[in-house]
Every structure is written in C-alpha cells, then in structure tokens.
Design goal:
Elements: H1 13-19, H2 24-31, H3 39-53, H4 58-67, H5 72-81
Length: 83
C-alpha cells in the first residue's frame, strides 16, 4: 500500500510490539495492504486506534475490512495479536 507521507509514521508501542514493526509502512507491508492511503483513511485509522485503546475492537475490525479490504480471517488474526 502506498502510504505517502504517512509511511514513516511511528506506530504506537502496542502495535509495534504485537507485529514486530516500527512504521505504518512496515505494518501495511506485513498485512499485505494494497492501494493508496487517503487523508480520510488515515483519519479513520486514528479513530479506530483511539477506540481500540479504550477496549473497543469493532471500529478497528470495520476499518481493516471496509477500508483496507482485508478478509475476516486476516482481520481476526491481526486483532488477536493485539494486547
């Protein structure tokens, strides 16, 4: 996935540790994301992370499936890695 200027964004520690990545580009590559990230996608990713941080995984699940195009199986495996 082409993340543009978001590619070097340093991910929050829980995500870095869970996926053994440092940047948003590392994570996109590890998850096999394709396409181009828009400013709205980046905003939605931030909102999903904020909800995840409060214990709500549904927003992250919807983001990964609806915005990123990941399958239910890949999404479930990714979310299972998070603390």
């Amino acid at each position: 996935m082409n993340l543009g200027h978001y590619s070097s964004y340093r991910l929050p520690h829980p995500i870095r540790a869970a996926f053994d990545v440092v940047t948003a580009q590392d994570l996109a590559d590890k998850l096999g994301l394709t396409g181009t990230l828009t400013a709205d996608d980046a905003h939605q990713a931030e909102l999903a992370y904020e909800q995840y941080a409060t214990g709500e995984l549904d927003a992250a699940r919807r983001f990964l499936i609806d915005r990123c195009g990941l399958s239910e199986q890949v999404t479930a495996a990714a979310l299972a890695r998070l603390p």
